[in-house]
Fold:
Amino acid sequence: MDANGEGTDVVRLRVLVASPATGKTTWCGRQNTLLGVVLSTDRTRAEIGAGEHDQGVSARVFDLVASRAAEHLAAGRDVTIDATGARRRDRARWLVLAAAHGAVPVAIRLRCPLWTALRRNRGRERRVPTLVLVRMWCAVRTLTPDRLHREGFAEVRDLRT
Ligand SMILES: Nc1ncnc2c1ncn2[C@@H]1O[C@H](COP(=O)(O)OP(=O)(O)O)[C@@H](O)[C@H]1O
Ligand SMILES: [Mg+2]
Structure:
């Protein structure tokens, strides 16, 4: 077992499930090497689009992150997807990818109070629209560990930031 209480004998695809400004990227950065390769959709937006908030390149961003994740999983490396994971079709894509590589799909649900997320969002240079944040926060609240298990995640961690 490693520091997260996870077995170390298998490859894991970890998928964050958290609303914007919950602290996903900060949390990932604090885990050192425990998460394997962290692939951020926002960082990829900046790479191929106009910046971390460029929603216009989303389809290409998800394709690129998925193909990079596939390469790492095939090489036996754990991968963590730093994205909101709030949409079912996105989570389904990661579940299919994990299955294709025999990786254990892990959901990491990160939450904080709505007012905390709104405050953290206000402190940013580029803010996520409040309505978008509130909608995603509500979506994540309904995504209980039980639901995520039933969706197909073999392990679910439910954490506060
Ligand atoms: N645990 C925490 N305590 C206090 N502030 C935090 C914490 N996690 C993140 N933040 C702050 O909240 C803001 C959003 O964090 P970030 O990691 O970028 O969120 P996300 O990746 O979920 O959008 C940043 O300003 C960050 O410094
Ligand atoms: Mg982030």
Notes: Residues 12-160 form a domain with the Rossmann fold fold (CATH 3.40.50.300).
